[in-house]
TrEMBL record:
Gene3D superfamilies: 3.40.190.290, Winged helix-like DNA-binding domain superfamily/Winged helix DNA-binding domain. The keyword Transferase does not apply. One of its GO terms (molecular function) is DNA-binding transcription factor activity. The keyword Nuclease does not apply. This is LysR family transcriptional regulator. Residues 12-69 form the HTH lysR-type domain. The lineage of its organism: Bacteria, Pseudomonadati, Pseudomonadota, Betaproteobacteria, Burkholderiales. GO terms for cellular component: cytosol. Keywords: DNA-binding, Transcription, Transcription regulation.
Amino acid sequence: MKSTLDALTGRLRMKQLQLLIALDEHSSLHQAAAAMAMTQSAASKSLQELEGMLEAPLFERSRRGMRPNAFGHCVIRHARQLVADLGAMCEEVAGIRAGSGGRVAIGVIMGAVPEVLVPVLARLRQAQPELALEIIEDTSLRLLGLLDDGHLDLVIGRSLVSDEPARYHYHPLGDEQVAVVVGHAHPAPRARAMGFADLAGYRWITYAGHMPMHALLQRELDLAGMSFPANAISTSSAFVTVAMLQGDPGLVSLLPTGVAAMFVRQKMLRILPVRLQSRQQTFGIVTRRGGALSAAARQLVAILKALPRTAQQAAAEV
């Protein structure tokens, strides 16, 4: 192991890592070489040198092109992290030189935005007004992919959706509560309690199959002895969901409770008194194990961990 590490540290070149990434993206040595402004023979020699250092082939050759094997997937993942970390270092150094506060890229699940991310970023901006922020909202699984590739510094989401959750540090923050919502003018009775059977006459807005709330609705309907609606309207956008609910009183959907509460306060939505039977999922701070956070990212993590318990409960109970 030490001899392999010595060989890599002594001979590995950044261009070899960039070539691996290009090969993963193009599945063709010719196209990857062109993207790297190299000759194909130079690219082939560079790949052979890297495979020799690692004492393992990294790609399988087939009619469909070059596909990374298990070794290749591992090395490419780390290559992306190293290239991204180097880029982040250059940006941070440039920011320090220019007198600005650097940059932090954050991934966040929808339900954590109103009651966790927004107040925490307000505190961070007060502490570092020159800090540049990039925020990406998506599912935990997709955000972890961006974290793995080095495009994000941290994720506010779930690590257990990964096939290898041990690759991450995880610090729980709260539970993502989900509510059944309708437009503010929806004719549903203002009862003290309702069930899914009471919504049988309304059309559901559902989420794309890869999204957790799609599976949540499926479980809840199964528990209620109901079939998944065949005429559902599917979207991956909370904005589309809210706009359609507000415009059509015949629709019903799910939203994270913290998100729904914002629109309830604006008299755009109503939360129906439907109690979900599924256990609510915990979310928290996810960072790469073994990765180095910038000073600004460390400060953000510290603010998140110091989030008052009452604020965390609000994120779970609004």
